Amino acid sequence: MSGEDWYCRDISGQMHELVAFIDLGLTEVINTGATFDGCTFRRCRFNASVHTDAAFVNCRFVGCSFFDASFTGCKLVGSMFEQCSFDLMKVSGGNWSFVGMPGADLRAASFSDMRMHEADLTGARCHGSTIRDVDLSGTLLHGADLSECDLRGSDLGSLDPSTVELKGAIVMMNQAIVIAMAFGLDVQVE
Questions:
Q1: What distance in Å separates the CA atoms of residue 42 and residue 31, rounded to the nearest whole number?
Q2: pLDDT of residue 139
Q3: What is the pLDDT of residue 150?
Q4: Are 46 and 25 in contact (CB under 8 A)?
Q5: Rounded Cα–Cα distance for residues 103 and 187 (Å)
Q6: How many secondary structure helices (H) and strands (E) does the chain include?
Q7: 74 forms bridges with which residues in the sheet?
Q8: Per-residue pLDDT in tens (0 to 9) along the chain, 190 residues
Q9: H or E segment at 22?
Q10: Half-sphere exposure of residue 188: CA atoms within 13 angstroms, side-chain side
């Protein structure tokens, strides 16, 4: 499917499997419960779109724009993002486990109350972003910039502080202890 414009459409409940969407306009689309399985999105615009309880499973996004897009309770398990922009994207709830976002610029994105179990955030630029109450267990973070990032409540057990930038990151006391122990410190509680 190439060059179509779905501007302001309600695509709720639609099902697409193994479809390639090229230069598709999804600006201000409303999507409740639609399913995309194994689809490819190339140079698609998801700007200001609203996705609720939708699924984009094992999909590939190449050169897509997610400006001000919101995903609430969505499932993106196994999806891969390449050369996409995520300015003001908001993700709340849902499951983004095994997602690939290596090198992604997530500085103006926010993620909360969700799973990103074993995701690939290698080299991701998250400076100043919000990643709160996110399950990051097993997530690849080597070379990621988490400086000034709000990480409160997120699982940082797989974080190797010697391979990421953490200056000014906001964490809770129990997370600080996990990070200190990862540095090899013997943390004593009086």
A1: 19
A2: 94
A3: 96
A4: no
A5: 33
A6: 1, 13
A7: 94
A8: 888 899 999 999 999 999 999 999 999 999 999 999 999 999 999 999 999 999 999 999 999 999 999 999 999 999 999 999 999 999 999 999 999 999 999 999 999 999 999 999 999 999 999 999 999 999 999 999 999 999 999 998 888 888 999 999 999 888 888 888 788 778 777 7
A9: strand 20-22
A10: 1
- E strand or H helix at 174: helix 173-182
H runs (alpha helix) in 103-172:
none
Determine whether 22 is exposed, middle or buried from the number of CB atoms within 10 Å of its CB (0-12, 13-18, 19+).
middle
Structure tokens at 147: 């400086």
The Cα 142–Cα 105 span in angstroms is 15
pLDDT at 106: 97
Whether the CB-CB separation of 171 and 152 falls below 8 Å is answered with yes
Nearest CA to 64 among 47, 49, 42, 31?
Answer: 42
Residue appearing with tokens 């400006």:
67
Secondary structure class of 181 (helix, strand, coil): helix
Residues listed for the chain: 190
Q: Domains, the chain, ranges and CATH? A: 1-88 (2.160.20.80), 96-190 (2.160.20.80)
The per-residue pLDDT for 189 is 74
